[in-house]
Design brief:
By secondary structure, the protein is α/β, with parallel strands linked by helices. 27% of the residues are buried. A 5-stranded parallel sheet has the order 2-1-3-4-5, with helices on both faces. It starts with a helix and ends with a helix. Helix 4 (65-77) crosses helix 7 (155-173). Strand 1 (54-59), helix 4 (65-77) and strand 2 form a beta-alpha-beta unit. It contains 7 helices and 5 strands. It has helices at residues 4-12, 23-36, 42-49, 65-77, 92-98, 115-127, 155-173, and strands at 54-59, 84-89, 104-107, 131-135, 145-147.
Length: 174
């Protein structure tokens, strides 16, 4: 057996403090974790590290082709950069982000009747240092990035979404 401290060091990827943990011990810990079906608790890890490695993609409606394209592209692209995408539909993004659910958010189209609430939420998130990118024809950047939406389903749209992800990741890593 090994100590709980050793298991913690190995599973978190941290060095073993003043003690070097041998490769065979690390292999045994990883094998036991695999055999037991261990899955790290992302929320606990996020609290300890100060970031979640989660990016929210907030869209209005899955029936909207532009929103659907944004969600699909972000789900493909974000994991390549080490981020877990969470797709949020409707107004749930506000509560999710205000509760610290993600390190950043890509906000798709916002209906005109909800724009004032969205702007208030964006201002609060900017104050908290959350990385934000918004697709909008009307909003001006105020501590967050804004991209004008393109046509869905085209190579141009895919490139625009790729640009959105790259921009947000740049903010996250700054």
């Amino acid at each position: 057996g090994v100590s709980l401290t050793t298991v913690s060091y190995v599973l978190s990827g941290r060095p073993g403090g003043n003690t070097r943990i041998s490769r065979p011990t690390q292999d045994r810990v990883h094998a036991a974790a695999h055999d037991l079906g261990y899955v790290p608790n992302r929320a606990a890890r996020g609290m300890r590290r100060g970031h979640t490695d989660v990016v929210a993609v907030a869209i209005t409606d899955l029936d909207d082709s532009r929103d659907r394209a944004l969600a699909a592209a972000a789900a493909r692209i974000l994991p390549r950069h080490g981020y877990q995408p969470v797709i949020l539909v409707g107004d749930s993004w506000r509560q999710f982000m205000l509760s610290g659910g993600a390190d950043g958010v890509i906000l798709g189209s916002v209906p005109a009747d909800r724009a004032a609430v969205a702007v208030g939420t964006l201002a609060e998130l900017v104050g908290r240092g959350v990385a934000l990118l918004v697709f909008s024809d009307t909003l001006q950047p105020e501590g967050f990035d804004v991209l004008e939406p393109g046509a869905a389903g085209t190579a141009e749209a895919e490139a625009l979404i790729g640009q959105a992800v790259a921009t947000l990741i740049g903010r996250l890593r700054a």
